[in-house]
Amino acid sequence: xxxxxxxxxLIVEDEDNIALALEHVLRRDGLEVTRxxxxxxGLQAIRDERPDLVLLDVMLPGMSGYEVCQAVRLEPELAEVxxxxxxxxxxxxxxxxxxxxxxxxxxxxxxxLSALIxxxxxxxxxxxxxxxx
Length: 133
What we know:
Elements: E1 8-12, H1 16-28, E2 32-36, H2 39-49, E3 53-57, H3 65-73, E4 82-87, H4 92-100, E5 105-108, H5 113-124
Parallel strand pairs: 1-2, 1-3, 3-4, 4-5
Helix pairs in contact: 2-3
């Protein structure tokens, strides 16, 4: 990433083991990381912090990742926030749904952490994913 400051990443993930692994790897990669564990907190953190990238789990307590994504996309001032949806249900229909709701990318669990870092870097540098990927 060709930025003077490190990118700000928000992890919205309710499974501690996944969130801790992500935090560790992203921080080691020089990124600033915040984490919340439910959808409502995720949406509020996105509004408050305006992160560069949100790693958003689909299956969350309360508000789902899809609902968070849709809510973010309905707020024009959050248009620049990139969203990478993470889900254990990584089929084509789920991918299309996530992208249709405005996600910038989609990664299926379990994922390789290096693949997630690579995908995150690509999104931060401006790449997007097409719905037929």
